[in-house]
Amino acid sequence: MRTARLRTVHPVLWAGWAALAAGAVLCVIGWYGISGERYAERQLPYLASCTVPGAALIVAGAVLLAHGRGAIAAARVEELYGLLVAAEPADAEAGPGQASAAPLAVSGDLLMVPGGTLFHRADCPLVAGRAEAVPVDTKLVASGELGPCPICEPAEETD
After folding, report:
1. Which residue from 150, 154, 148 is spatially nearest to 107, judged by alpha carbons?
2. How far is 42 from 54, CA to CA, in rounded Å?
3. Separation CA 94–CA 25 (nearest Å)
4. How many H-runs (helices) and E-runs (strands) does the chain carry?
5. How far is CA 90 from the centre of its chain?
6. From the centroid of its chain, how far is CA 122?
7. Nearest to residue 136, comparing CAs of 113, 104, 112?
8. What letter would DSSP give residue 47?
């Protein structure tokens, strides 16, 4: 899934780099031609044939590179979102096609990741199996430094 989507973006990046290189070469040729001419009327052909198209190619290459990198980032975000949505709850009581109104995680134990801004239930897919997850410090929740996870929707009541 990932490689198929990313392979279609690479030609845009290659085209961007090629346009930048061709533009730079044209600008150097134009500069070299202009530097050898004393009169402005003899410099104009170099401007028209090399420097202006070279500058346009540099701009086009920069736009292609920005678009290609944005497309790669969008593809990665879409892939991560697909992985998050594809995570199924551990209990298989609900049959396929049945939507459950209950939150994804239902454990009463609350965990947090040091340096994080959210607190989670112990079976939340974002902290389940993470060795660095520690029990929630009630002082952080009471002071408002930790907010509830939007995925597992833990109760704000702590022991």
Report:
1. 154
2. 19
3. 64
4. 5, 4
5. 29
6. 28
7. 112
8. I
Q: Which residue has the tokens 């930048």?
A: 20
Q: Give all strands of the β-sheet with 147-148 in edge-to-edge order.
A: 134-135, 110-112, 118-121, 147-148
CA-to-CA distance for 63 and 40, rounded, in angstroms?
32
Strand blocks (E) in the chain = 110-112, 118-121, 134-135, 147-148
Task: Summarize pLDDT for 17-74 with one digit per residue, the tens.
Answer: 999 999 999 988 888 888 888 887 888 888 888 888 888 999 999 998 888 888 778 7
Phi, psi values for residue 155, rounded to 5° = -70, 145
Q: What share of the chain is helix, strand, coil (3-state, %, to 5)?
A: 55, 5, 40
What is each CA distance from 77 to 9, 73, 123, in whole angstroms? Answer: 15, 6, 24
